[in-house]
Structures are given as structure tokens and as C-alpha cells.
Design brief:
The complex is a heterodimer of chains A (421) and B (225).
Chain A lengths: L4 H51 L7 H8 L3 E5 L7 E9 L4 E14 L2 E10 L1 H49 L16 H49 L7 H31 L7 E4 H17 L4 E6 L4 E4 L1 H17 L6 E6 L3 E7 L7 H4 L16 H11 L3 E7 L2 E7 L1
Parallel strand pairs in A: 6-8
Antiparallel strand pairs in A: 1-4, 2-3, 3-4, 5-7, 8-9, 9-11, 10-11
Helix pairs in contact in A: 1-3, 4-5, 5-9, 6-7, 7-9
Chain B lengths: L1 E5 L3 H11 L5 E5 L2 H10 L4 E4 L2 E2 L2 E2 H10 L5 E6 L4 H9 L4 E4 L4 H15 L6 E4 L2 E4 L4 E4 L2 E3 L3 H12 L4 E3 H9 L11 H15 L6 E4 L3 E4 L3
Parallel strand pairs in B: 1-2, 1-3, 3-6, 6-7
Antiparallel strand pairs in B: 4-5, 8-9, 9-10, 10-11, 12-14, 13-14
């Protein structure tokens, strides 16, 4: 699955942030708690030291009851059999709040007038919980804000940073080598993108010039061939006027004659293709296809007679399309010709015209053709056929120019060539 | 009839001259624009065959020169250029016909004949050959003054055959002539046989002599025995 570049980086950022939160939040809580407990313990020890230093020397046995009466958090209790100071957690029922609350308690043994007692000081930890909660929430809020901010900034920044890249991408996507819409890249202040743009520009310029010179070559070659072909044709026309040929010589002349007209057609078709590539036929009009087909039917019916083919047309509705009129005629003629040329004797040609497509179906050889190469130049299925291998390429080229789609199918012994508008 | 052929390709010019000479045509040849303009200024021609790409200039210049000198010669452009624009420009500058190279010499000949007929047209546009009389305007054919039933295409074929009297016409030449604009589409010339057969039959039924001879393997020939 492909995703946008920004999504990918954002996703990584987001994942990192969430993971950071998950890991650091408990860690932070734990550390804060530890710090707080340490602080509490230190306070307890401080209180005890103060007690030992200031209160204990003047304390009498008789004062213990009063002491305990007025001090809630520091009590003097009967000796609990422990010499060392101990600090521990404890819970007491708080009558005011009517709940059990956590406390940190310090027990130490003291001597009052020679009698051992246990000094017990405690600090309520409820405050600690509140504080910790506040700290944790604050921490969370700050970290979240930080992450969101970071996320937004990087996103914004990325969009800005990658903008030239997307512009370049757009330009390349629109680029077609046979059209004259050369991409114009704007200068950016990012070195990598400038490098990218420069290399793409170089690539395009080079390829376009190669493409142009190739196209020119085909056009020039076809054009230059016309004069020698004209001479060839004229010489044959002159030569056959001689009366005294043997049958063998007549046969040779005849095949020479056929070859020169084939060469001629090939050349004209090549010229046609290069003209189309040079956008000579770019003017479009609305064309009534029914009329265009009817116009050619007589000619092709005549052509079909040699193979005793039956041409049937199925045109229920009037269909108008936008196309160059010359190209539309060439398209129809080529479809007709293709259906006749590759047909078998006593076969059929079925022309179906509907609002969205034109289909020529014909009988022919009984196996399906290799569809993917069919519309390429000079891809002849049967090399001995008379066609020059350009007919379908021309059909495809004309369809492309009008943004139509060509397709081939084989069913019920009928080869169908369709052009979808 | 005097023709001027303006064409820089010598081999082609030779063939055209050879083919046209003898059809009551005299064909002069200029291989560059300068000679052509000299000749045009000095003589009158019935028809000018003009190549557009000349070593010392563009054929269109010659058309302009003709206009400037108020010459009324019929002009057939013979060119390898075949874009619609050059055609239109040619016609706008006064050319009468346009033939794209390569072409059959027989085709050139009937185009010249048709052009001269149109130019010299004096009320009737008739082509006659012995007992056959073709009225080009009304598209009718009479054999010994009797009108025969004939299609447009057969008239076209008949004119083509008569125009190229005593010349061997290859099947491909006939096919291309009959197909007009569709000629480039042809890859089978068998339909020519059917047309020749029909025409032959119709002429025979009308009591016409059999002028159409078959040339083995190659084509046909209109011959007056």
C-alpha cells in the first residue's frame, strides 16, 4: 500500500510521541512520588530532631497525656520495643472525612525521665496524592502540547518544504513527449530539489530532441521516398507500353507493379502517421458517423465482392462525435479495410454503431489474435498478408487523438475491433 | 496541344515526356523556375505541369508570375507535398488540379485531357471515339447515336481507357483511378476485372466494337484495330 510521504513522517512522529508518553508518564509519576516520599521522610526526621532538641529535655512523664491531647500528628506512645528509628506507611481513619487516609509515620524510641517511650510522628499523604496528580496532569498537558505543536509545525514545515517537489511531480505527470507542453520548473532554495529539477529538465530536453529527430527522420524519409517512387512508378508505366514481352516478363512486371503500389501505400501511411504526430489534423468538428459510414459502404462493398463477403450494418441511432473529419474518414476506411482484408471467402463484416462505440466484426481465421501487440506498428499476424501493418496503428493513433479507446475481442468466430467514444 | 513540364527530376520528366508525346501533345520541359518563367513569358501553352519544389524557387512563384502576366494556361500541380494547406494555396493561386507524387502517367494524361476539355469547353463537352460519344456534362454515353445504360463509374472508366488509347494500363493504375481519394486504401485490385467485364458487356450489347484488350497478367488496353 502506498501512502503519501507526509503521512509516513507524520505517522512516525505520532507513534514516537505516543510511545514517549506511555513510557515517561509512569516513570515521571514514580520519580515524583519517590521525591515526595523522600521529602516527607526528611520532614519527619526534621520534626523528630526538633522534638528531641527542643521539646524532649523539658518533657515530664506527667506532660505526656497533655502532649498527646494537643498534638494530633506527633504522639508519645508506650514503648514498642524498637531501638531504631523506623519510617513506614500506615493508614488511619479520619473521622472528619469519614475515610481511611494514607500516612507516612516515623517511630523512634525516646527516654522521658528515664522511661522509654515511642515517639510517633505522621504526615498525611493525601496532599501528596493531590500534588502528584496536579504535577502529572501538568506534565501530560505540557508534553501533549509540545507534541501537538511539534506535529503541526513539522507538518506545516514539511508541506512547505516539499512543495517544490509536488510541483515538479505535477509537471512531470502532465508531460507528454508527443505534445509541446514542456514542464517549466521554478527555482527553489533547496539544493536537492534544484538538482532534481535540473536533471529532469535535462532528461526531458534530451528525450524530446531524440523523439523529435526520430519523428523528423520518419517524415523526411517518407517524404524523400516520394520522388524516387514517382520515378519508379513512371518508369514501370512507360516500360509496360512495350508490346513484345514474354509471359514470364509480364508476370515480373505485374509483380513489380504491385510492389510499387504497396510501397506507395506504406509510404503514404507512414506520412499520415507522422502528420498526425505533428498535430496537423488537430482541428475538430462534429461528425455524423452514420453518414461517414454510409459514404464508404459502396466503395467497400465493391472491394468485398472479390471475396464474396456480406457487409451488414447495424445503426439504430444517429451518432455524432467530435473529431477531425479527415481522421474520422481514415478511421472508418481502415476499420472497413481491416475487416475485409483479414476475412475469408463468403465471410461477413458486421458494422455496429451505437451511441458509445463503433464496432467492426468480421469472420476470419478461427483463432484469437494476440491482443496486446495488435495495435502496434508493423505487428502483422500473418506476414504473407497484403496489409502493411500500419492499419491498426493508424486506427489506434486516431482514437488516441480523440481520447477514444480501441479494443479487440474474439467470440463466435468473429474478430471484433471496437472504438469506444 | 502544347504542354510545359516544370520538373527538376530528370528521370521523371523523361518518362512524362515520353508518355505524353504522341497523344497529339508536344511536351516541353523546364527543369528550373527561371527557364520556366522565360518559357511562359515567350510562348503560350495549353497546359502547364508544375512541380512545387524547384532548385531555384518555389512553384508558387510561377503561379504568381502567370497571374501577373494575365496568362490563362491551365495548371496541374504535380508535387510530393500533399498537405491540405499546400493544395489550398495552390488552388488559390490559380492551379486547376493537384496530383500527388507518385502517380500513374495514365492518370496524369487523363487529368490533362480533362483540364484542356474544360478550358476549351464551348457549350458542349463531348468525347468521341468512333461510334462512341460521351457527354461529360450530362453523363450519358451513346453508341452509334443510341443512348446506353451505364453507371457513372463505367463512364469514368471509359473516359480513362479512351484517354489512354493504345497504352497498356495496369490494373493498379485503373484501380487507383476509379477509387479517387480512397486509392491509398486499396490493397486488392480484383474489382477492376468486374468493372471492365461490365463495361465490355454493355458496349458489346450496344453493338460497339471490342476495343478493350486484355494484356496478359498486367492489365488492359484500349485499342482501335
Amino acid at each position: 500500500m502506498t501512502k503519501k510521504l507526509l503521512h509516513k513522517t507524520s505517522k512516525v512522529y505520532l507513534l514516537f510521541s505516543v510511545m514517549l508518553l506511555i513510557v515517561t508518564a509512569p516513570l515521571f509519576y514514580y520519580i515524583t512520588e519517590r521525591l515526595y516520599i523522600e521529602e516527607t521522610d526528611e520532614t519527619l526526621i526534621l520534626h523528630k530532631n526538633e522534638f528531641v532538641k527542643y521539646s524532649l529535655p523539658t518533657l515530664k512523664n506527667a506532660d505526656i497525656q497533655n502532649w498527646n491531647k494537643y498534638n494530633r500528628n506527633i504522639k508519645i506512645e508506650p514503648f514498642k520495643n524498637s531501638d531504631k528509628d523506623t519510617i513506614f506507611y500506615n493508614s488511619y481513619y479520619d473521622a472528619l472525612d469519614a475515610e481511611i487516609e494514607p500516612y507516612r509515620e516515623l517511630n523512634a524510641s525516646i527516654l522521658i525521665e528515664g522511661n522509654p517511650y515511642t515517639y510517633s510522628a505522621r504526615i498525611n499523604l493525601v496532599e501528596k496524592e493531590d500534588l502528584m496528580k496536579s504535577i502529572a496532569i501538568l506534565f501530560l498537558v505540557i508534553i501533549s502540547l509540545l507534541l501537538v505543536g511539534l506535529f503541526v509545525i513539522t507538518k506545516r514545515l514539511s508541506i512547505n518544504l516539499w512543495k517544490p517537489f509536488y510541483e515538479t511531480l505535477n509537471q512531470i505527470e502532465k508531460f507528454e513527449i508527443d505534445k509541446s507542453n514542456h514542464p517549466k520548473f521554478t527555482e527553489t532554495n533547496i539544493e536537492e530539489f534544484n538538482r532534481l529539477n535540473n536533471s529532469i529538465e535535462k532528461l526531458i530536453t534530451k528525450n524530446t530532441s531524440i523523439y523529435h529527430s526520430q519523428r523528423e527522420f520518419i517524415e523526411n524519409a517518407a517524404h524523400e521516398l516520394q520522388t524516387p517512387l514517382a520515378v519508379f512508378q513512371a518508369k514501370i508505366d512507360t516500360l509496360i507500353q512495350n508490346a513484345d514481352f514474354t509471359q514470364e516478363q509480364y508476370k515480373m512486371l505485374s509483380s513489380l507493379n504491385d510492389s510499387v503500389s504497396r510501397l506507395n501505400r506504406l509510404n503514404k501511411n507512414l506520412l499520415l502517421l507522422s502528420k498526425m504526430e505533428n498535430d496537423i489534423y488537430n482541428e475538430k468538428q462534429t461528425i455524423n458517423l452514420n453518414e461517414a459510414i454510409e459514404k464508404h459502404i459502396d466503395f467497400f462493398t465493391e472491394q468485398a465482392k472479390a471475396k464474396t463477403l456480406i457487409i451488414k450494418t447495424e445503426m439504430k441511432e444517429a451518432v455524432a462525435v467530435k473529431s477531425n473529419p479527415v481522421l474520422a474518414e481514415i478511421l472508418i476506411s481502415n476499420l472497413f479495410l481491416n475487416a475485409i482484408r483479414h476475412n475469408v471467402s463468403d465471410g461477413q463484416v458486421l458494422v455496429t454503431l451505437s451511441n458509445h462505440s463503433l464496432t467492426f466484426s468480421n469472420t476470419g481465421q478461427s483463432q484469437t489474435l494476440v491482443a496486446d501487440k495488435l495495435f502496434n506498428r508493423f505487428s502483422k499476424f500473418n506476414p504473407s498478408e497484403q496489409g502493411n501493418g500500419l492499419g491498426l496503428a493508424i486506427i489506434k493513433k486516431i482514437a488516441d487523438q480523440n481520447n477514444w479507446k480501441t479494443s479487440y475481442s474474439f467470440a463466435n468466430n468473429f474478430h471484433s475491433f471496437s472504438v469506444a467514444f | 496541344m502544347k504542354l510545359l513540364l516544370i520538373e527538376d527530376e530528370q528521370e521523371l520528366a523523361n518518362s512524362i515526356q515520353t508518355y505524353l508525346t504522341g497523344n497529339s501533345f508536344v511536351c516541353e520541359w523546364a527543369n528550373n523556375a527561371k527557364t520556366a518563367i522565360d518559357k511562359i513569358s515567350t510562348y503560350d501553352y495549353d497546359c502547364i505541369l508544375l512541380d512545387l519544389m524547384l532548385p531555384d524557387g518555389n512553384g508558387f512563384e510561377i503561379l504568381k508570375e502567370l497571374k501577373r502576366q494575365n496568362k490563362t494556361e491551365g495548371v496541374i500541380i504535380i508535387s510530393a507535398k500533399e498537405t491540405l494547406e499546400t493544395r489550398i494555396e495552390g488552388f488559390n493561386l490559380g492551379a486547376d488540379d493537384y496530383l500527388t507524387k507518385p502517380f500513374h502517367l495514365s492518370e496524369l494524361l487523363v487529368r490533362i485531357q480533362a483540364l484542356i476539355r474544360r478550358k476549351n469547353f464551348k457549350g458542349n463537352n463531348l468525347v468521341a471515339f468512333n461510334e462512341i460519344e460521351i457527354d461529360i456534362l450530362s453523363k450519358t454515353v451513346r453508341v452509334s447515336t443510341k443512348k446506353i445504360d451505364i453507371t457513372k463509374k463505367e463512364i469514368d472508366l471509359l473516359l480513362y481507357l479512351i484517354g489512354n488509347e493504345n497504352r497498356v494500363l495496369s490494373k493498379s493504375a485503373i484501380a487507383e483511378h476509379l477509387s479517387g481519394d480512397m486509392a491509398d486504401m486499396l490493397d486488392n485490385h480484383d474489382f477492376v476485372y468486374a468493372h471492365i467485364k461490365n463495361l465490355k458487356n454493355k458496349l458489346k450489347v450496344a453493338g460497339c466494337s471490342d476495343y478493350i484488350k486484355t494484356v496478359y497478367g498486367l492489365g488492359y488496353k484500349w485499342q482501335n484495330d
